[in-house]
């Protein structure tokens, strides 16, 4: 090796770079919580599609209300469950904006059921990110509409009894039957492969909006170690082995292609 | 002076429309007016009414305790409003549908077969417009020519065929109440208004 | 600015170009002409014609009309559109307003300008569809949860309602606050001659409006301040804003007050009843005037208090069981006797009843007892 060879300047090979749209600060999320992963996926996808400067995002009520602290986007904070209505208002007056909602399962599947159904039915050009961890995290781990049968929470301490509180609501499948829904998929943060697929779903859900095809939703199965009473590792195992079989990941509907029903 | 007219009957008898025409006529005379409908589910086939208040001053209360004129087109309306009309007021009764007559002597009840007259004019639903003719001929609240002009303004330009029916019905009401044909009235009143305006215009300012 | 008009706001009209227009439709058209960018609503009697007018007119103007699935959704759609700096109108009637309470609080907290029309009907509950002023407390004392006040303007004629629509947008945008235009079933349903005079408030360039963080730091429109110190600071800011509104936007009108020793306090449709009652009472020799608040918050309490120097007694007339009455009591601080006459449920006080109440007040306050 000659001296000359040693002084040759090479372009550094980028092995890791945080997405520009992800703020450089630690989150308030608990260890093992899936929100951080989903935030990052959103930041990556929006960044890769160059959508940051034209995105108006709607934050929910729940743990992810702080999304506006971690994503470098214009944000409006919606009342609990109302994000799809707030997004509709934005959509209608800002035709060139990219409109994103981010909701948890209490927000979207309980208190905000009416708003999500009608936004989807109208085929609003909105990309909805629906983080489903089967529990109310922020308020201390109460039962959500998506809580699994038998799952113990602080408000169903002996386990969810469907005879008493009904069965878990498969929200995304319900929404997928609406003709206004151009794309609906379910991903998960259980492992690297699932996270990769989830990113593909999110990217597609954004492209659907850009193409003006209609409403797009990506449900992301996520973890709540504190609410579930498990370690982060156990949470991921439960997500993969117990939750995912009840809410199977995959494309649920894609009306943008000839194939229907995924 | 403030004067009020209530039109009452079934929904579908054109009450709100007749009230609107009266209100428009009063406004075109440069007067103040307030038109208040009964609103809500009772409009679909039940008893409906509307009130028109005409005044030289801005209209105050929308609530009329005792109307000066009541046009009652069905029996429930007669039962409800006949006793409310002010002493020396006017009650216009649709004799086609209402058999009752008032016993009050301090009231001028004009009972005419309004529905029949409307049917003869082309459509029984014009009954309120016929009644408007009676009101114009017998109460002096507005000039008949103003009502005619209001009909032209509200109905006329868009739907000339319907205007013709409305004017026919209005004319039938005036004549049934003892007035002269609307065409004559319009001619005379128009000339009178023009003369009054000439008089009111200061010399040298005429264009 | 405190607006004092010692005459009816509707000047006697000669032969001007006027049109006959229904209150709901006049309010809607005034909003269109004021540059309203978007309207969201849900059908409810007695304001449905407002929504219907917008359904036709907004698309004609290339603007946004959307019928929402509920009042809840309508007001939140409005929140989203208004957060983008657009001029937004929402309308409803009493039960719908209750559903909107949540978002009203959020918008007050996140300082989103918006105009909300409430064409009040009888309550509580599903109540009746008749005219009412039963939502005075709701409109003026907070509406949703938390510490906030919103400007509330109450027209008493259709022409005044049209003018107050433009005023409401101005005040909403100037102070970044929702504004309530409080009408009732009669003002919504009645027709009156109006002049087609419209005002379009000038557009402002808002440094808070959302539109995408393009070449600038991201903006957040929010009401959450988890740290108590931060929320208290935010609330202090809101208080300061409310004080500024109180100073500049208090509005009222007086009629026949010059020689009045009895004063009726009434707003909206009740003020019209009072005007007729005053004319009748004056025929019998009583000296009665009308104090008509136009801004219900901020309440014109200073001006009302000043009248205690000349008046023996005050009669509050409302289409409620006595709501504004409490603000009159607060304003007068016990200085003079206060009587009340109210009807509820869709019933409207009559001039005759009001005159009778005046006579009782006259006797009670040492008048001649006519």
Folded structure, characterized:
The complex is a heterotrimer of chains A (262), B (207) and C (370). Chain A is built from 11 helices and 9 strands. Chain A is an alpha/beta fold and 262 residues long. In chain A, the strands form 2 sheets. In chain A, strands 2-1-3-4-8-7-9 form a 7-stranded mixed beta sheet, sandwiched between helices. A two-stranded antiparallel sheet of chain A has the order 5-6. In chain A, helix 3 links the parallel strand 1 (55-59) and strand 2. Chain B has 207 residues and is of the alpha/beta class. In chain B, strands 2-3-1-4-5-6 form a 6-stranded mixed beta sheet, with helices on both faces. In chain B, strand 4, helix 2 (75-81) and strand 5 (89-94) form a beta-alpha-beta unit. The longest helix of chain B is centred in the last third of the chain and has 19 residues, at 182-200. Chain C has helices at residues 23-33, 48-60, 71-83, 94-110, 136-140, 158-175, 185-189, 228-249, 268-283, 301-307, 324-332, 351-364; strands at residues 18-22, 38-41, 64-67, 88-92, 114-120, 152-153, 178-184, 191-195, 220-221, 252-255, 262-265, 288-293, 295-297, 313-318, 338-342. Chains in contact: A-C, B-C. The B-C interface holds B 20, 23-24, 27, 30, 32-37, 39-41, 56-63, 65 and C 8, 10, 12-15, 18, 20, 45-46, 129, 157, 185-186, 189-193, 269, 272-277, 279, 348-352. Strand 2 of chain A pairs parallel with strand 9 (220-221) of chain C.
């Amino acid at each position: 090796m000659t001296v000359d060879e040693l002084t040759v300047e090479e372009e550094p090979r980028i092995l890791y770079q945080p997405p520009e749209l992800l703020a450089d600060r630690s989150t308030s999320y608990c260890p093992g919580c899936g929100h951080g992963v989903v935030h990052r996926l959103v930041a990556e996808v929006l960044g890769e599609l160059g959508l940051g400067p034209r995105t108006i995002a709607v934050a929910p009520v729940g743990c992810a209300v702080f999304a506006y602290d971690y994503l470098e986007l214009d944000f409006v904070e919606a009342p609990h469950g109302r994000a799809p209505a707030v997004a509709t208002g934005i959509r209608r007056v800002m035709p060139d904006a990219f409109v994103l909602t981010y909701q948890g399962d209490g927000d979207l599947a309980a208190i905000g059921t009416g708003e999500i159904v009608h936004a989807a039915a109208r085929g609003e050009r909105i990309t909805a990110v629906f983080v489903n961890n089967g529990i109310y995290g922020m308020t201390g781990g109460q039962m959500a509409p998506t809580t699994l049968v038998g799952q113990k929470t602080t408000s169903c301490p002996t386990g969810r009894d469907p005879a008493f509180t009904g069965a878990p609501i498969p929200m995304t499948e319900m929404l997928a039957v609406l003709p206004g829904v151009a794309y609906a998929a379910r991903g998960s943060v259980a492992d690297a492969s699932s996270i990769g697929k989830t990113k593909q779903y999110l990217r597609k859900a954004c492209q659907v909006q850009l193409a003006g095809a209609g409403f797009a939703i990506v449900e992301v199965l996520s973890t709540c170690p504190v609410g579930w009473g498990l370690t982060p590792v156990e949470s991921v195992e439960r997500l993969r082995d117990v939750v995912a079989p009840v809410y199977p990941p995959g494309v649920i509907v894609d009306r943008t292609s000839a194939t229907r029903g995924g | 002076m403030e004067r009020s007219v209530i039109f009452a009957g079934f929904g579908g008898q054109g009450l709100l429309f007749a009230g609107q025409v009266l209100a428009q006529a009063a406004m075109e005379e440069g007067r103040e007016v307030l038109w208040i409908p009964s609103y809500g589910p009772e409009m679909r086939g039940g008893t409906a009414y509307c009130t028109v208040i005409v005044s030289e001053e801005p209209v105050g209360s929308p609530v009329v305790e005792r109307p000066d004129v009541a046009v009652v087109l069905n029996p429930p309306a007669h039962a409800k409003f006949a006793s409310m009309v002010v002493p020396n007021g006017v009650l216009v009764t649709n004799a086609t549908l209402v058999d009752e007559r008032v016993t009050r002597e301090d009231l001028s009840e004009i009972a005419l077969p309004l529905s029949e007259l409307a049917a003869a004019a082309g459509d029984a639903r014009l009954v309120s417009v016929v009644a408007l003719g009676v009101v114009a001929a017998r109460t002096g609240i507005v000039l008949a020519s103003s009502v005619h002009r209001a009909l032209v303004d509200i109905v006329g330009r868009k739907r000339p065929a319907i205007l013709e029916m409305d004017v026919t019905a209005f004319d039938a009401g005036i004549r049934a109440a003892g007035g002269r044909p609307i065409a004559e009235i319009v001619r005379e009143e128009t000339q009178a208004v023009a003369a009054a305006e000439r008089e009111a215009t200061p010399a040298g300012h005429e264009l | 600015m405190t607006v004092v008009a010692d005459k009816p706001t509707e000047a006697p009209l000669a032969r001007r170009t006027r049109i006959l227009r229904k209150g709901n439709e006049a309010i809607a058209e005034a909003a269109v002409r004021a540059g309203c960018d978007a309207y969201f609503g849900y059908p409810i009697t007695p304001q449905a014609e407002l929504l219907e007018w917008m359904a036709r007119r907004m698309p004609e103007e290339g603007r946004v009309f959307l019928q929402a699935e509920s009042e809840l959704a309508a007001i939140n759609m409005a929140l989203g559109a208004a957060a983008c700096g657009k001029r937004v109108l929402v309308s409803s009637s009493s039960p719908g307003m209750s559903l909107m309470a949540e978002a009203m609080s959020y918008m007050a907290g996140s300082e989103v300008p918006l105009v909300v029309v409430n064409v009040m009907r009888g309550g509580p509950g599903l109540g009746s569809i008749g005219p009412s002023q039963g939502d005075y407390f709701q409109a003026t004392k907070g509406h949703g949860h938390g510490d906030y006040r919103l400007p509330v303007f109450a027209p008493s004629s259709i022409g005044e309602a049209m003018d107050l629509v433009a005023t409401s947008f101005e005040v909403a945008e100037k102070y970044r606050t929702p504004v309530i235009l409080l009408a009732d079933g009669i003002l919504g349903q009645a027709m009156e001659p109006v002049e087609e005079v419209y005002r379009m408030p000038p557009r402002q360039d808002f440094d808070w409006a959302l539109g995408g963080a393009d070449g600038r730091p991201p903006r957040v429109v929010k009401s959450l301040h988890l740290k108590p110190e931060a929320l208290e600071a935010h609330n202090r800011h809101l208080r300061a804003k409310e004080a500024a509104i109180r100073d500049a936007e208090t509005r009222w009108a007086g009629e026949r007050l010059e020689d009045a020793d009895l004063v009726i306090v009434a707003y909206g449709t009740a003020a019209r009843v009072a005007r007729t009652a005053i004319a009748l009472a004056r025929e019998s020799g009583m000296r009665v005037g009308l104090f008509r608040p136009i801004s219900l918050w901020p309440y014109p309490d200073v001006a009302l208090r000043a009248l205690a120097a000349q008046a023996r007694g005050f009669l509050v007339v409302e289409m409620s069981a006595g709501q504004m009455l409490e603000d009159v009591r607060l304003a007068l601080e016990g200085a003079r006797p206060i009587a009340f006459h109210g009807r509820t449920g869709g019933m409207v006080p009559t001039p005759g009843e009001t005159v009778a109440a005046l006579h009782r007040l006259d006797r009670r306050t040492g008048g001649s007892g006519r």
